[in-house]
Q: What sequence folds into this?
């Protein structure tokens, strides 16, 4: 067969079968909705670099418009903490929030947001991406028709705002405090009256004395809520949230309906936002904290060592008892702690010595 005949035959028997599905594939578009646990305009949680709205823009650009996601902040389509049910029912395809908001439905979900005295940003992502964490997350959510991905991380958070100083563990007794997640169980064991409030409700509750203390995120986010105008004692250690994962929650049937390339785009955009959101926090918190101290009269300090030591003792007991109540939680707890123990060996000769260097 000469060259012209070969090319003609190739066009007839090779090109045509490839062209049709390629064109059809390019024409397939998806229009999804994403709800959010946080209110309109919230930096990091709604808008800005690495935020859920940024994620939606990234996905649309990377897919050339084949997957468009319409974003709704809390209250624009559904109330703040109803995203789990909305996604599970298929009313929306996605929700942005934190897995520990679903503790009442899936106790083990809390481990995929943060664990007190647990893993920092590096360690948490190492566990999720390379230490079996994502497989456990899938295993936990699959029976409910859900799929999740990490889509953001604040890094270490501040202990929180207190209307009175904390000088001993006894100061926690009967304190009314907004604190979500597993740390809330630790505080409760010390006599704290734990409250779970959406971000937008924290300031008015703290200002009116409905609560005595509150934890939110860090200097930049906390200043935006005006928490410095309701309490002046601002503590740190990050014991309760050494990192905090933003969850991209998806309806599993909707996720499975996406072709492989769009799934890859969603995964890549989520990973990009996970990194970008964290670096945004790292870039902005120092100036915000300095402003709070120098211009707002905030008293920022570290929790006393004996208080932290007691928190750690209570934490270990509370988490062990909590995990033992449910086989799925026990499985996730054991896997998390095993990875943490191994990761600690490396951190002890890498991060820890570096951070202890002078200057």
A:
């Amino acid at each position: 067969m000469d060259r012209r005949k070969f090319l003609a035959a190739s066009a007839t028997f090779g090109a045509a079968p490839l062209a049709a599905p390629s064109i059809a594939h390019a024409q397939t578009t998806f229009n999804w909705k994403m709800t959010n646990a946080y209110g309109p305009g919230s930096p990091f949680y709604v808008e800005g670099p690495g935020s859920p709205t940024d994620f939606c823009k990234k996905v649309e650009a990377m897919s050339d418009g084949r997957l468009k996601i319409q974003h709704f902040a809390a209250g624009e389509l559904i109330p703040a903490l109803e995203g789990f049910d909305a996604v599970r029912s298929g009313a929306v395809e996605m929700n942005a929030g934190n897995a520990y908001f679903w503790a009442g439905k899936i106790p083990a979900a809390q481990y995929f947001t943060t664990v007190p005295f647990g893993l920092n940003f590096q360690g948490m992502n190492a566990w999720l991406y390379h230490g079996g964490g994502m497989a456990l997350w899938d295993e936990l959510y699959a029976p409910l028709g859900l799929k999740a991905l990490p889509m953001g991380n604040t890094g270490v958070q501040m202990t929180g705002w207190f209307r009175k100083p904390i000088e001993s563990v006894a100061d926690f007794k009967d304190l009314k405090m907004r604190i979500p997640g597993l740390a809330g169980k630790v505080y409760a064991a010390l006599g704290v009256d734990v409250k779970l409030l959406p971000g937008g409700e924290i300031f008015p509750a703290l200002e009116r004395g409905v609560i005595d203390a509150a934890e939110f995120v860090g200097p930049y986010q906390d200043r935006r809520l005006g928490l410095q105008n309701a309490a002046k004692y601002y503590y740190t250690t990050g014991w309760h949230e050494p990192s905090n994962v933003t969850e991209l929650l998806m309806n599993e049937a909707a996720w499975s309906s996406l072709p492989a390339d769009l799934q890859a785009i969603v995964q890549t955009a989520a990973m990009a936002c996970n990194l970008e959101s964290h670096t945004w926090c790292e870039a902005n918190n120092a100036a915000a904290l300095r402003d709070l101290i120098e211009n707002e009269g905030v008293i920022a300090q570290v929790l006393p060592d004996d208080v932290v030591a007691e928190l750690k003792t209570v934490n270990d007991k509370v988490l062990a008892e909590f995990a033992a109540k449910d086989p799925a939680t026990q499985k996730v707890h054991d896997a998390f702690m095993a990875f943490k123990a191994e990761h600690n060996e490396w951190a002890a000769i890498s991060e820890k010595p570096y951070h202890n260097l002078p200057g």
Residues 52 and 126 are 22 Å apart (CA to CA). Confidence is low (pLDDT under 50) at residues 1-24. The radius of gyration is 23 Å. The first strand starts at residue 30 and ends at 36.
